[in-house]
TrEMBL record:
Gene3D superfamilies: 1.10.1740.10, Tetratricopeptide repeat domain, Winged helix-like DNA-binding domain superfamily/Winged helix DNA-binding domain. Keywords: Sigma factor, Transcription, Transcription regulation. The keyword Transcription regulation applies. This is Sigma factor-like helix-turn-helix DNA-binding protein. Residues 180-280 form the DUF6596 domain. The keyword Cell wall biogenesis/degradation does not apply. Belongs to the sigma-70 factor family. ECF subfamily. Residues 18-78 form the RNA polymerase sigma-70 region domain. It comes from Georgenia halophila. InterPro entries: DUF6596 (IPR046531), RNA_pol_sigma70_r2 (IPR007627), RNA_pol_sigma70_r4_t2 (IPR013249), RNA_pol_sigma_r2 (IPR013325), RNA_pol_sigma_r3/r4-like (IPR013324), TPR-like_helical_dom_sf (IPR011990), WH-like_DNA-bd_sf (IPR036388). Residues 111-162 form the RNA polymerase sigma factor 70 region 4 type domain. SUPFAM superfamilies: Sigma2 domain of RNA polymerase sigma factors (SSF88946), Sigma3 and sigma4 domains of RNA polymerase sigma factors (SSF88659), TPR-like (SSF48452).
């Protein structure tokens, strides 16, 4: 029974997007696709323990979901209208063609549909996290710091708008791609980050299924747009971050910071590919965007064989460049970490404290303050800051790490 439950969980992680995309392509209705996929997984929970796990779980789930969709259409007595709509809107050659001989992937079609500019940016991200990544509404609500009911309504409205506006299910044309890709990259980056530091109780602290899916889809976007620097930059950033995955959580389930990680455990193949992509963009001579600068920062970190060899002056220079591109308080917070290494914790703390009003609800702000206060010998203040960071952190491994650091203060 345990093996069957694990198989269903694994199938949900690996096959959810395929099932939703397949049903969407056939029937042209995101609501129907999501409901049919959910019913297919519910059927698997009932039948697989008795019938055993099928040899191809993805094919079984897709077939079952399609049958569930047809049953639902029949029950609603709208089969003919649904079929006409699917035929005219979703299955015509123009709507289903992929430009320039690009990779034909239903999940890529689905993500461009969910990221359509007719939707607000935060709605695009939320919808994609639900429809493509398969995150539950509570998980997405936590990522946006909103109520679960609010997020549920937002996703429902987004699906209704796609249907009402007859937004096509396809990869955009070559002329439309440059204008559309930034929203897609924002979605993919958030999906990756949800896997990199998963939120919510009961989830693994690192969800490789999400990071792997984000990397896979980013590779597909890069195949469509090989000359786009930000696509390449995001892929490099993901690879250099993913390379450290196995070293990021200890055997006891605690976060291991970059400074404390066993660098010999990093994935050398991913590091090499990430570095190659960063060099490729540098050689292009074009002004870098946000993802390219973030990738370059990670390239500096992963170039050091020992944390003591880290070129903090180069990292700070890159953060200065990033601040001009993205003057957000989170970038300023990360820049302060580099400042601490070069100018000391007191200078860095002064910079961090200026961000309190904007980052009071962000756990990393309090964790950074706690560390700087600890380094300055201000134990009571550090302990309080660690406590606030623990209250706000949603990742189990991070909470364990912060708790240990607080307890070390006595």
């Amino acid at each position: 029974m345990v093996d069957v439950r694990e198989a269903i969980t694994r199938a949900h992680h690996e096959e959810w997007a395929r099932v939703v995309a397949s049903v969407t392509r056939r029937f042209g209705d995101l609501d129907l696709a999501e409901e049919a996929a959910a019913e297919a997984f519910a059927t698997a929970v009932q039948r697989w323990p008795a019938d055993s796990v099928p040899p191809n779980p993805g094919a079984w789930l897709t077939t079952t979901a399609n049958r569930k969709a047809i049953d639902r259409i029949r029950r609603e007595n709208k089969r003919d209208a649904k079929h006409r709509e699917a035929q005219t809107l979703w299955d015509d050659p123009a709507a289903s063609s992929v430009p320039l001989g690009a990779i034909d992937d239903d999940r890529l079609r689905l993500i461009f549909t969910c990221c359509h500019p007719a939707l607000a940016m935060e709605t695009r991200v939320a919808l994609t996290l639900r429809m493509v990544a398969g995150l539950a509404v509570p998980e997405i609500a936590r990522a946006f710091l909103v109520q679960e009911a609010t997020m549920g309504r937002r996703i429902t409205r987004a699906k209704a708008k796609i249907k009402a506006a007859r937004i096509p299910y396809r990869v955009p044309s070559a002329e439309d791609l440059p204008g559309r890709v930034s929203g897609v990259l924002a979605v993919l980056y958030l999906v990756f980050n949800e896997g990199y530091l998963a939120t919510g109780p009961g989830t693994d602290p690192v969800r490789h299924d999400l990071t792997a899916e984000a990397i896979r889809l980013t590779r597909l976007v890069r195949a469509l747009m090989p000359q786009d620097g930000e696509v390449t930059g995001l892929l490099a950033l993901m690879l250099l971050t993913e390379a450290r995955r196995t070293a990021r959580v200890s055997a006891s389930g605690e976060l291991v910071t970059l400074a404390e990680q066993d660098r010999g455990a990093w994935d050398a193949v991913l590091v090499a590919e990430g570095h190659r992509l960063v060099r490729e963009r540098l050689a292009a001579g074009a002004a870098p965007g946000r993802y390219q600068v973030l990738a370059a920062i990670n390239a500096v970190h992963t170039s050091a064989h020992d944390v003591r060899d880290t070129d903090w002056s180069q990292i700070l220079a890159l953060y200065d460049q990033l601040v001009r591109l993205d003057p957000s308080p989170i970038v300023a917070l990360n820049r302060a970490v580099a400042v601490a290494e070069l100018d000391g914790p007191e200078v860095a703390l002064a910079a961090v404290d200026q961000l309190e009003e904007r980052l009071a609800g962000y756990h990393a702000f309090h964790a950074t303050r706690a560390d700087l206060l600890r380094r300055l010998g201000r134990g009571a203040e550090s302990r309080a800051a660690y406590g606030r960071a623990i209250e706000l952190a949603g990742n189990t491994a991070e909470t364990a790490y912060l708790t240990r650091r607080r307890n070390q203060l006595g």
